[in-house]
Amino acid sequence: MPVEFLTDEQAATYGTFGEVPTRPELERFFFLDDDDRDLIALRRSDGRRLGMALQICTVRYIGTFLGDDPLAVPWEVVDYLAGQLGIEDASCVKSYAERRMTPYNHAVTWLRRHRVLLPGLSVLARQVSEARTVAERRLYESVARATHKADRTLAPALVGLLERPEGKRVSELERLRTPPTKSTGTAMVRAMERVEEISAFALGRVNLSRVPVNRLNTLSRYGQLSKAQTIERAPEPRRTALLTAVVRQLEAQAVDDALDLFAVLMANRLISPARRASERERLAMLPQLEKAARILAKASKILTQELDLVAEHDADLDVAALWAAVEEAVPRTAVAVAVATVEALVPEDDGSGEAAMRENLALRYNTVRPFLALLGESDALSAAQGGKRILKAVRRLPALSRRRVKERPLLPREVDAELVPAMWRRAVFSNAKLPQGAVDRDAYVVCVLEQLHRALNRRDIFAAPSNRWADPRARLLDGPRWEAMRGDVLAGLSLSEDVGEHLATLTRGLDAAWRQMAGRLAEAGDEAKVEIVVPEDGGRARLSVDKLGAVGEPESLTWLKTTTEAMLPRIDLPDLLFEVHSWTGFLDAFRHVSARPTRMEGMLVSLVALLVSEACNIGLTPVVDPENKALTRSRLSHVDQNYLRADTIAAANAALITAQGRIELAQRWGGGMLASVDGLRFVVPVKSINTGPSPKYYGYKRGLTWLNAVNDQVAGIGAMVVRGTPRDSLFTLDTLLNLDGGLRPEMVATDNASYSDMAFGLYKMLGFRFAPRFRDLADQRFWRADVPVPEGEEPAGDYGPLEAIARHKVNLKRIETHWPDMLRVAGSLITNQVRAYDLLRMFGREGHPTPLGAAFAEYGRIDKTMHLLALVDPMDDTYRRLMNRQLTVQESRHRLARAICHGGRRQIRQAYRDGQEDQLAALGLVLNAVVLWNTRYVDAAVAQLRAEGHNIKDEDLARLSPLKNAHINFLGRYLFNIASSGPAQGLRPLRDPDEVEPDDGDED
After folding, report:
1. What is the distance between the alpha carbons of residues 777 and 773, in angstroms, rounded to a whole number?
2. How many CA atoms lie within 13 A of 736 on its CB side?
3. Fewer CB within 10 A of the terminal residue: the chain, N end or C end?
4. What is the model's pTM?
């Protein structure tokens, strides 16, 4: 029986000493007690006694006897046993294996006495297979039993989804599994109908609390990827279990898709077009306003001059004379027309621009009218206290949409006037085309939908079941669950001490940083790289910070870069992946979605072909080979659907990250404790709701951002895909809390990311130093805090010249008040109970933070100021250069990613979120493999140069980069031959750097 659950390496080392036992293991497994000594004493010679001891202890340690070679043990084990038996010459054990029957007889003696033996490989495989089968059967029975218990008609109804309706090409299940792609009102109707259809099964009543969540997720994932025919052929109770898990998961996905579509519809089909139309109208008004302004300016100038003369001569005011003077320059009728023009085009209220935009927005009622009834009647929406009023208004939308307002106008008492903000009042209550006192129904409905859109973003209104739009408050740890893990979680975050002591430590550190900055500024004098500028008019003091100059590159570094790059062997991308797998075994992480071992031959070839196809963005056609069973289109499609997914790619990536960290050269670049997070933008030319507009990056098209984290060893440690060009700080924390592997970084650099004091607070509580590169560094606010002074000591002095910028004080009392809830939030984030994105949106409330959000902001101001003071150090720019170097590494890595992802004009043609995530995850995996291959060969090149007598400086090694691709062929030649893909042993021969070779192309 094949041992399919073990890798080849695991099978080869099964029942053997894979490594030398540690000292504790020697003391535990190789200690000889009195019974052991009594049995060993029956042997006549030292060699046989020591051999018998080896057999007894070997079976304890690895679970079996070494029948073929009883002496295949580390010599440290032999010495340890010889010492216990008082045998001075441990080499006498070699005589033990000279007689073939001796080890066998000793083994039989011990077995008869203890009745213990590790099973053989085939027996073990059979037992594991049987155990898995029993566990799977129990899972199917548990889910099916719960389904029947909830409703006996539920299982037949679910089976009905497998049927293909008359005249349709796909089954009902397949139709429900297809997410929306278009962002129109009609598409929103279909999305809400999809939610309604799936919700009708009411799978929330099926009690699956006793089924492990991971097993249920695996079952659901397998069902999602299976064709309807495959599920239909499955025997009971497996079929019912699969359908229950799939439809249960589909309900949450359908709700998420509908609300994603609603957000896209509001932002891109209503608000943005209305704003553009309003701006066009205001620009069209500009010539009229200019003309009116010129007329009024002339009249005002003459009027002012005449009034000054009257005041100067203390004369009586003659109105007729005033008008006569004005009319000499401007006719009175022209002045009246100009005044009327200004009054019409520039309303009295300050928010005239926003009000005009809302009037345009109200004209888009027909876009939302089709789905008002379904949205208002949906049971998926719920509200927190801050959103109940809005949700109540949403519930009335179906009735309003059906009302014939021409026959029965809407009156103010029939709407919630307090829900209408000032910017909407003109459009809702002052439509001149309606009867006096009537409410504009269309404007009110769109106003309510805008309030719903904003409340959803703040999570004042949320959805259930849902993954992306759920209530983050409900997911925070609380009660017994929080108390059970509170101690361990807070100890891991170094937040166990009392809040007073904790804040005292932070404020003392902040005070020390201020004083160090003041001292350095005085010491630097005129040579300081920072200057405090106080305006003459007494305005706000600002910092003037010198720009960093480029660090010069010595000739030794230039030579080393050129030479090592020239020594890298030329290689095709498939061969590179095969070779990296031979070092790391990273492709073994790709397991079938059902968690069963694969029985297909040539799996590695199929996997490499798919990774090349996805990462290079070339599709399957260039890698398909009908003559190779592992490269047929059907095989590749099967492997793609069942093996390449987020969890397997993350597991494979973890192996590459670990291997990268073990290379000596990578360790010279950093210890893995510094990381950067930045986004790489891709245009998505197909219709998709998981994209966003950005003229700067996508032109007239739409796109997405691949937000990825890279550590200082140049390994990609995590990534996520987000729509459009989002505020990075809302997503970077989620990226860092869901890393694929590697050490957890302590410092996180970002490139001009949108940031907030609240984000600084969350990062600090989770153990990160948030280090954005500020575009507006001179305009940043610096904060100080009251430092506790021990009794008997006088308060320290001020901060000298820095007092001009150290004007703002942190509210420590606010932090102390909310500290228990802040700890609970931090614990929930670090244990992945809730997304940081949801909490930041909920706490921020569009610039009006909640009390808890304000407490996080106060806490973050301490760390933000520490970061700022380190950035503007007047003498030492090491901190700033460290950040810039890491961000430069990230930018270079993005260039390499662009070189790999060369196909399809570097545009991602995936319409659905899952497809986008899987393709870009594959790109990240291949990118890490290329970096690992380059790093190992550059390390080998450096070793060879040193062996040849070259003096290689450590500081030059720290500035080498593995982000090169001129020697790698990414296009035009895809051969998947494992046998000839790598060297017979060791690494490939390095090229002679002095040998001139024809270049196939310049590096991208």
Report:
1. 8
2. 31
3. N
4. 0.82
